[in-house]
Specification:
This protein is an alpha/beta fold and 397 residues long. It folds into two domains: 234 residues, Thiolase/Chalcone synthase (Peroxisomal Thiolase, Chain A, domain 1, 3-Layer(aba) Sandwich), CATH 3.40.47.10; 151 residues, Peroxisomal Thiolase, Chain A, domain 1 (3-Layer(aba) Sandwich), CATH 3.40.47.10. Helices cover 31% and strands 19% of the residues. The protein contains twelve helices and 14 strands. The strands form three sheets. Strands 5-4-6-7-1-8-14-13-9-10 form a ten-stranded mixed sheet. A two-stranded antiparallel sheet has the order 2-3. Strands 11-12 form a two-stranded antiparallel ribbon. A hairpin with a 3-residue loop joins β13 and β14. The longest helix is centred in the N-terminal third of the chain and has 16 residues. The two termini are 17 Å apart. The model has no long low-confidence stretch (mean pLDDT 96).
């Protein structure tokens, strides 16, 4: 079994377009959620900051042809390659670099007001969820294993887990893994509003309240993130200093309600990851929770943590990255995994914004201020509509 490491990161959220800017902002509890001045039925959102894919030499043709979601993914993919000191096309082709990404809806919505006869001849490609990875593959010359995962909010977590297993078993040396999503479009927003999942809050400072007793739904966020996963010795031979190791992956399905979280399913995912990592539950020093600020998720995730860790659950620091950037859906697991790498490297945990008081079920340590912590192993949980759960465990080098 090969040792697998993270050797590069590309990230884009409402708090920044580099891992450094995101990490610093999160440590200082900066809010990336802002007021919206649109006709959408929500008043706040975590809109991605400005970014420029042309800085990586992307042609004007590709830049113009790509929709916003594809552009976000391409930006993060190329940033991750640069961060890992991998050149394209030379290195990516030399190492048969692969890519597995989680994505969500694809609507080609920018053409809604354009007559069919006046649209770009290739407009319909934007209705294919795999096109974002298609663009990244074409631009970065990715010729290895390629796949697109669609499992709602667990999509990028599944992608990272699958890439981890492929490298661990010797089937690949380098795989880009992560996800992207832009759900700030009217049909999706209306759908979440009808399900009662989106917050009705209008104050961006207090709209996201994970685990707090006053939580009433999530804020929609735009985002993308790619991690470069690499076989350890391969990274060392390239002269790269890995950021951290990935050591465990678990995934489960609830087989119950399609929209509500389920403590049993989340518990099974965590247990599987711990078993896969070949460690004991009490070795987990920190959990980056799914923490969506919905009544159901935060309750069920907290109960699942207590189920898996018993009394130890009250000693484990837990935070929600979504508290600052909103819910980025198919991208959230990758974004939170990137933050786990930083926590392991710097031995610090960012706070959960707007957690003031829990309820009877949400009574764990949700970290309200940045904290110095000794971390050997950390866990990242994600759950998605349809009843999908995924868990990753990262370890200090």
């Amino acid at each position: 079994m090969r040792k697998v490491v993270v050797s590069g990161i590309g990230i884009l959220t409402s708090l920044g377009n580099t891992i450094e800017s995101n990490w610093e902002s999160m440590l200082n509890s900066k809010n990336g959620i802002t007021a919206l001045d649109t006709n959408l039925p929500v008043k706040v959102a975590g809109k991605a900051v400005n970014f420029d894919i042309k800085q990586f030499g992307v042609s004007k043709k590709h830049a113009t042809q790509m929709d916003f979601q594809s552009s976000m993914l391409v930006y993060c993919g190329l940033m991750a390659l640069k961060n890992a000191e991998l050149n394209w096309p030379d290195d990516t082709m030399k190492y048969s670099t692969g890519a597995i990404v989680g994505v969500g809806n694809a609507f080609a919505s920018r053409y809604n007001d354009t007559e069919f006869c006046k649209r770009n001849p290739l407009w319909f490609l934007e209705t294919y969820p795999n096109m974002a990875l298609g663009y990244l593959s074409a631009i970065a010359s990715l010729t290895g294993y390629g796949s697109t995962n669609i499992s709602a909010c667990a999509s990028s977590t599944h992608s990272i887990g699958t890439a981890f297993k492929l490298i661990q078993s010797g089937h690949a040396k380098i795989i880009l893994a992560g996800g992207v999503e832009d759900k700030l479009i009217e049909p999706v927003v209306s759908g979440f509003m009808n399900l009662g999942m989106c917050t009705t809050a209008s104050n961006p400072d207090t709209a996201m309240m994970p685990f707090d007793k006053k939580r009433n739904g999530f804020v929609i966020g735009q985002g993308a993130c790619i991690l470069v996963l690499e076989e350890y010795q391969h990274a060392i031979d390239r002269g790269i200093k890995p950021l951290c190791c990935i050591v465990g992956y678990g995934a489960s399905m609830n087989a119950k309600n399609l929209t509500d979280a389920d403590r049993e399913g989340i518990s099974n995912s965590m247990k599987m990851a711990i078993l896969d990592a070949n460690i004991y539950p009490n070795q987990i020093n920190y959990i980056n929770a799914h923490g969506t600020s919905t009544i159901s998720n935060d309750r069920e995730e907290s109960l699942a943590i207590k189920n898996v860790f018993g009394k130890k659950a009250y000693e484990i620091p837990i935070n929600s990255t979504k508290s600052m950037i909103g819910h980025t859906f198919a991208a959230c697991g990758a974004i939170e995994s990137a933050i786990c790498t930083q926590s392991l490297m710097h031995q610090k945990i960012h706070p959960t914004r707007n957690f003031f008081e829990g309820d009877n079920d949400c009574d764990l340590d949700y970290v309200t201020e940045k904290r110095n912590v000794s971390i050997d192993y950390c866990m990242n949980n994600n759950s998605g509509i349809g009843g999908f759960n995924a868990t990753l465990i990262f370890a200090k080098i």
